[in-house]
Amino acid sequence: MKISVYRYHPETDTKPRMQTFEVEERPGMMLREALLEIKAQDETFAFRHSCGEGVCGSDGMNVNGKNMLACVTLVADLKQPIEVRPFPGRPVIRDLVVDMTQFYEQYRNVQPYLVRKDPLPEQEILQSPEERDKLDGLYECILCGCCSTACPSFWWNPDKFHGPAALLQSWRFLADSRDQATDERLDALEGPYKLFRCHTIMNCVEVCPKGLNPTKAIGQIKDLMLEKSV
Amino acid sequence: MSRRASGLKAWVIQRVSAIYLALFGTYLAIRFAFAAPADHAAMIAWVTTPWVAVGLLVFVPVLLAHAWVGIRDVLMDYVKPIGLRVTALSLFGLLFLASGLWAVQAIIVARIA
Q1: What's the gap in Å between the CA of A191 and the closest CA on chain B?
Q2: Which CATH class for the B8-112 domain?
Q3: Domains observed in chain A
Q4: Residue A61 forms beta bridges with which residues?
Q5: Residue B2 and residue A190: Cβ atoms within 8 Å?
Q6: Prediction pTM value
Q7: Which PROSITE patterns is this protein grouped with (chain A) (predicted)?
Q8: pLDDT tens digit string along A43-87?
Q9: Is the minimum CB–CB distance between B6 and chain A shorter than 8 Å?
Q10: Does B40 carry a binding-site annotation?
Q11: What are the sequence ranges of the domains in chain B?
Q12: DSSP B7-42
């Protein structure tokens, strides 16, 4: 099968190009394995990967125009020739490797950890099964970046709009019965950019390899904000 | 811009205005599709019907508020140079204000005449 990959080395290339490789397809072959075959043919080809089973979130990339994780994508399911590009909207460091700094900064901005005002107890802070259920569909995020880099609002304002991944985590802590910083979290999201650049385009939902729904989480943040302000 | 311009307020205005626009807009669409006023006199008679006049007087500012939030969003997303953005926002603001006042004036004049 033919795989066309994006090649760009900013220090030596004047502009990016697509390079086609011929890889022998095996039954059950994942795209990550095909890219490793390419790497064996041309060791200058660069891409990130680690666990190989959709847990670490390292090998997010744009395949045939859609963001996905190479390690959990069967090449048999892809239309050929397969076209592999880096995440859209991110500065390219080399080939498929992009600079995700702004993505992580936006994640850091939502304070993705429990904030307690009461003194910490000696034991765990207990939750009822119902309270715990509210975190389902939120905590599973692996921060691969497929959603935020597929979001047009994040393309236009990556420095100001938090993006779907960070906002899903914002809701994950707002929804957590053990967190005690609801008002501060909501106050920090006010203004037209951080939260409200979301125009429910829903590319995030379409591409999430974990099947999560950041758009719904963003809607729940807006609802809570409204509830707390009227 | 991001310090002063509202997020939640603009979003609520957009959502609430959308409900009224959907309801009254549907009425307008049906009215004009199936029983459009035949001539100018019939149009005036329709506009001056008290509940239609009130409906239209509410419709105009609600439509413009909705349009304002929408155009503000578009300009915030796509127009980066701050001078150009402020100019565009001002021009649209004035355009909307003028259209709104003109439309309201037309409804009131029709009522008086």
Answers
A1: 4
A2: mainly alpha
A3: 2-98 (3.10.20.30), 101-229 (1.10.1060.10)
A4: A68
A5: no
A6: 0.91
A7: 4FE4S_FER_1, 4FE4S_FER_2
A8: 999 999 999 999 999 999 999 999 999 999 999 999 999 999 999
A9: yes
A10: no
A11: 8-112
A12: SHHHHHHHHHHHHHHHHHHHHHHHHHHHS--SSHHH
